[in-house]
Structures are given as structure tokens and as C-alpha cells.
Design goal:
With 382 residues, the protein is α/β, with parallel strands linked by helices. It contains 14 helices and 10 strands. Strands 1-2-3-4-5-6-7-8 form an 8-stranded parallel β-barrel, surrounded by 6 helices. The chain is elongated, with a radius of gyration of 26 Å. The protein binds 3-hydroxy-3-carboxy-adipic acid and copper (II) ion.
Length: 382
Amino acid sequence: MHNHRIAEFHIIESTLREGEQFEGTHFSTADKLEIAQALDAFGVEYLELTTPIASPQSETDLRAIAAMPRRFRLLTHIRARMDEARLAVDCGVDGVDIYIGTSAYMRQYSHGKSLNEIIETSRGIVSFLKSQGIETRFSTEDTFRSNLADVFTVYRAMDLEGVNRVGVADTVGVADPLRTYNLIHSLRMAVDCDIEFHGHNDSGCAIANALCALQGGATHIDTTVLGIGERNGITPLGGLVARLYTMDRELVRKYDLSLLHEIELLVASKVGIDIPFNTPITGRTAFHHKAGVHTNAVLQNPTSYEAIDPTDFGLGRSIDVAHRLVGWNAVRDRAAALGLALSETDLRAATTRIKALADLRRITMEDVDAVLRGTVVVGLPE
Ligand code: HCA
Ligand code: CU
């Protein structure tokens, strides 16, 4: 039996790199500084930024964030090229994430290098970065569609070259939790350095895969705020936090959880999206209770239908009474909130009337309140 407990882990927040590859993203320097400050306050351990070689503003932004007061370690994400590595170091980063494609697709359609060429080029860059005192990561793009013997050969060579960590990337979102666990677990036995996981969400597995990576022995997980990134993105910061919180709250106490919602609102507004309703923790309906069976139990003890305590995130819950599934306990709660002292008989009768009205049309809280106040409501059967 393997031990599935999670040891120490670090978040590499890539909203300012992978997130820049999102369809709606166009960050100004000020936007990046604002997001970096918010993530610094939240307490992520690393921020990964776009390579300074991408454009003049990318370089300016990297230098600006390198110079800001911060607790996170600053990384930039580069191809296995010496000119890019030199520029990254010159910009003042703490670490460099190198990536190179190892799948047949990448080798054929991207850089066209053989396995030995990949190893030789990368060795030179890793040893240069190490000589500059730079924390260095080496990752193989499209790991899951690569020949595993090949990638393990490359990882072992980079481990021997002295990288701080190797990265596994599910670039096209084909991995599933079990495959992720197995690959990372095997890698854990093959290298001594730390292991990072970067997972895309094309089939909805990005959070689960990140968890399984941690359980398999990964030490670093890439996230972006709301999961924004190339196509439909990667493991979302909030989703990963939710997943870990539901296993053991202590795992995420090192972050300022009360800031999650405002960080998401900030990034959402800058990239022109809303927080989807089904987003873990911060989705509009994440703590919305409706059916009578649920609301009755939640009113007595929220834990009965909540795995996550919204107050840990500075949020509240809502009890919905304006629908046909309402139960009389929830109606009693609403009556109490209105300051109405109704008998159980009255409450049960009001509940019957609310249900009858809700069968006729979509009702609102005003309709419920009107029934409770004994006001005549248009359309209410007597
Ligand atoms: C990309 C690169 C990357 C890199 C991941 C990593 C990916 O395709 O844009 O450096 O580990 O998904 O492979 O984001
Ligand atoms: Cu990616």
C-alpha cells in the first residue's frame, strides 16, 4: 500500500504566464503588479511570469515585478535557449522554468530536436543557470503523450545536472488521475529533486490530477486564478484549495483564504469573464441550499450539507425558500427573520400556500414574504 498523505507542497501561480495565454487576457503593467500584490497577500509561494523575450512589455513587467516588495519567489518560463536564459537572469528572477517538448508531436512540429540534442542543449542552460545561483526547473511539455522511457532519460539527466525540480506537463489535458499518480510516483523513485505538475483541463480532470500528483509525490503544483490559460485552462487556484481543504483544512491554512474571492473578482474583471456559478467555493451558488430536506438540516447544522465552511473564505450561505421544494423549517426561519411569530399550524399552512403558488409560476422572496405576512397574492389559490 502506498501512503496517500500529502507532504509539504508549494503553489506556482501562473496567472501571469499561463493566464496570459487565455483568450481574453491583455494585462497592462499595472494590472500585473496589482495581481502580483494580491497573490502575494494570499501567500502563494511562487509566481511564474511570461518570458521576457516575448515582447518589450513582457520584459518591462518582469523587471517591475522583480523589483516590487514581495514574499513569493519570482519565476519566468523559458524555452531551452541560452539567449532567453541570459535575459531572464538579467531581469532579476529567483528561478527559471525551462520547458521543451518531448512528444513526437513536439519533436516533429515544434523544435525538431532529437532526444540527445534535447539533453545536450538543456544541460548547458541548466549549468549556466545554476552558476548564476538561479533556482532551476526543467519540464517536458506534453509529457503524457511522450515515450516514457525517453522522458525519464531526460529527467534523470537533468536531475544529475542539478535542477531543483523537474516538471510534468499535461499540455493537452489527456491525463487522468490514476495515470497522473502512476507517472509521478514512478518519477518520484527515479529522481532526487522536487517534482512539479502542470495540468490542463480539457476533460475536466485538472484539479483531480493535481491532487493525484501530490499524492504520488509531487511537491509543486501550477495553478492560475479561475484556471485561465491556453484553451480552457489549467488547475484553478481556488479549486485546488477547495480540494485540499476538504481533505485537511490544515493543508491550506498557510494561505489567506479570505482573499480568494476578491482575487478571482479582480482577475475575472481584467480578462472579461464572470466567476462561473459552479466554481468551487466562490461560485454564486456554492453555498446555496434549496430542497426542504437540505435546508432543514443546514439550519440545524450547516456541516450536514457543506464540506466547506464559507466563513473560512469570508463568505456566507443562502437558504432558498422561494420554490416548490421548500420545507416548513426553512419557512419558519424566514418568518423569524421577518420578526413574525407564527404557530406551527400557520407555518405549515403558509408552506402549503407557497408550494401551490410556486407550482403555478416562478416565485420570489417577496411572494414568500407576502404569504407569511398574510397579504393576498395575485394568483394564489385559496
Ligand atoms: C504550453 C507550455 C506549458 C508548459 C508547462 C510547463 C504546457 O504549452 O504553453 O512548463 O510545465 O502546458 O505544456 O504551459
Ligand atoms: Cu500549459
